Amino acid sequence: MQTYPPEPFRIKMTEPIRLISPKEREAALKGAGYNLFAVKAEDIFIDLLTDSGTGAMSQDQWAAVMRGDESYAGARSFHRLKAAVEDIFGFKYFVPAHQGRAAENILSACLVKPGNYVPSNMHFDTTDANIRARGGRPTNLVIDEAFDPANPHPFKGNMDIAKLEAFIEKTGADKIPFGMVTVTNNAGGGQPVSMENIKAIADVYHSYKIPFFIDAARYAENCFFIKERESGYESKSVKEIAHEMFSLADGMTMSAKKDAIVNIGGLLCMNDESLFQNVKNELILREGFPTYGGLAGRDLDAMAVGLYEGLDEAYLSYRLAQTAYLASRLNDAGIPTIQPAGGHAVYLDAHAVLPHIPQSEFPGQALAVELYREGAIRGVEIGSVMFAYPDPDSGKMIYPKLELLRLAIPRRTYTQTHMDYVADTLAKIKSRASSIRGFKFTYAPELLRHFTARFEPL
Ligand code: F0G
Q1: CATH number for the domain including 95?
Q2: What is the pLDDT of residues 336-353, one digit of tens each?
Q3: Which of 1, 72, 137, 380 lies at a 20 to 30 A Cα distance from 346?
Q4: DSSP strand E in 80-211: where?
């Protein structure tokens, strides 16, 4: 059993939460069309929908907010962020963006043409959708172990190098405007990618002259896993590991709402000067002038400080142990989760908890609804609601290999008692799992449908 680490901080400001009655929860579910994105936050007790933008900022970040320089161009805040970005990531050029998907949109707008392919280990949903929105086809080439929830492979986010080479040979490098890897692999369980694998990915892309971009949303957690699990990295600092990782790439997109522990913000970095010119033009059109990129000066300052806090090793050690603690409590209660525990979230194998519900009836969604019903806890389905799509050639539905319920843990926000409450609630659900039913859509948009879909119980 994983022990719970003492938090390397104490609390000096609180935010009240309240547990509404079972009757009120039932009404909230009905009103939301059984989509937890549509439930009011005030009706949620423990919110594990996402770790994105939901963390607690530190006293130093709040102090930095007060120093925010709101000048339209060339603000001091921008230059403080620039110094941090250059120090940590080392790319030649960067722009801020209001969040990760804005960086993805701009990169895709500049590089993806209809009929192009963009390989990765696994794209997150917004990356996937931004590539599709430009007529491209995102392609996931993670190792097979990633699809076996019980397999304890230490780097289950790794890309399958043989598959990547075969894929490039088949499609032709000219059809691949850039290649990616997501660290950690959120869509596949928050699993890390090894440095050895990142080197091999970089070698393959570069041997075909394909620019290599890292989706760096949770790069610090990934680097801490490398420190803990990959030989040769035990005595390197997380910052040194990050340096090595980014030195292998030509650029990165980042949602700063994760490992930079801010409520809003993103980054797009690159080494190519002509791409940078195009990115700036696109940014001005969609986000704002290149020294603020859709953010307030105060947000840039909070990010500049948060980038360093996200690399703090006492924090990262606590962070990953908290996640592992929740996973181990669930496993002790007989609830299977993706092994090993991910960095930012615990991923319940909804298919294993609800084996009687077929993919077409959304077992992950059914478990998410039940978790709210039982304990006013919000998680998010990562399965067929999010990822099933009709094949563009045949029109046949293609289902994802995993049906998951993700419990994402906001940074520096919840305590051990909150995690115990979540585990106890799920243990109750497990004892009556066979009576839980699936769902069908009553409304579903074409892209990113999990955000606004509505359901009806079957
Ligand atoms: N890439 C990864 C790996 C992500 O997990 C996310 C967001 C993004 C890009 C997009 O960033 O939200 O700032 O636009 N993930 C959140 C989540 C939403 O809940 O996992 P964004």
Answers
A1: 3.40.640.10
A2: 999 999 999 999 999 999
A3: 137
A4: 93-97, 117-120, 137-140, 179-182
